Amino acid sequence: MESPSSPLPSRSCEIRRDDVFGRCVLFSPARARRPSDFKSRPPPPPSLPNPKPSCAFCAGHESKCAPQIFRLPPGSLSDWKIRVIENLYPDLSRDAEPSPVPADIPDAVALGKYALTGFGCHDVLIETPDHSVHLHDLSPEEIGQVLALAIKQRILHLACLESIK
Q1: What is the Cα–Cα distance from 81 to 137, expressed in whole angstroms?
Q2: Residue 23: which residues within 8 A CB-CB, separation 6 or more?
């Protein structure tokens, strides 16, 4: 039996059919390498805006993050409101070779007979530099900026990639 600490086999992520709910799901063996993600942590005290001063997602620690894709406002170096960065543990891979799509793919996936290569972009959207604020805490205008500006801008970036159709 393999020890729990031994590395998992290197497998690319896949898009598979969930037979229970009848929908497509992402299956990514590489994400299983992060057991700390599943540990329960108490919420930070509300008096601390950024409870982890060393957190790469907090304002002032941008150099500790994965490469930045863009930020809003665009010209701002430290006074940002929204950032999009590459995901260090993506479910999808930009480098994967897209699966050939057979003519009967909807039927094959629907019947659970086919798995597609997990090709795509899986980024991290940081909605606010303040750790204690969640999306539902933002004002309607701020939520609009996240949805209308950041997500729309990212979709426009992705549309320019040759590998994305």
Answers
A1: 14
A2: 17
Q: Is 156 helix (H, G, I), strand (E, B) or coil?
A: helix
Six-digit token string for 15: 């898009």
Report helix, strand or coil for 35. helix
Check if the beta carbon of residue 86 is closer than 8 Å to that of residue 93: no
Tokens of 106: 């909807």
Residue 131 has pLDDT above 90, yes or no: no
Give CA–CA dist 151/145, Å, rounded: 9
Bridge pairing between strands 68-72 and 23-27: unpaired
Q: Is the pTM of this model over 0.70?
A: no
Task: Name the one residue in this structure whose structure tokens are 């900026």.
Answer: 145
d(CA 64, CA 83): 14
Residue recorded with tokens 């999306």: 135
